[in-house]
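Q: Trace token order:
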Amino acid sequence: MIFRLLLLFLIIWFLFWIIKKQFLGTSSSTQQIPDESEDIIPCKLCGTHVPRSLGVKKDDRFYCSQEHADQYQTDLDEK
């Protein structure tokens, strides 16, 4: 008798769990949604894509680092 009740309880719980998963989907607390997106821009010298906030803008050109900005300017001066 107790075994039947326990089995019935487990079956009902399992069905409830499946139905809950179907209607609710994944929990919104487990999904990470970025607050804001940021542009990813290629470096003029090497082509590496970096976020706008981490790069360097010089003479209307975008670089992945200050070193590449200086190197690009040096390369232009040598030509």
Remarks:
- The beta strands are 40-42, 49-51, 56-58, 61-63.
- Residues 10 and 16 are 10 Å apart (CA to CA).
- The chain has a mean pLDDT of 86.
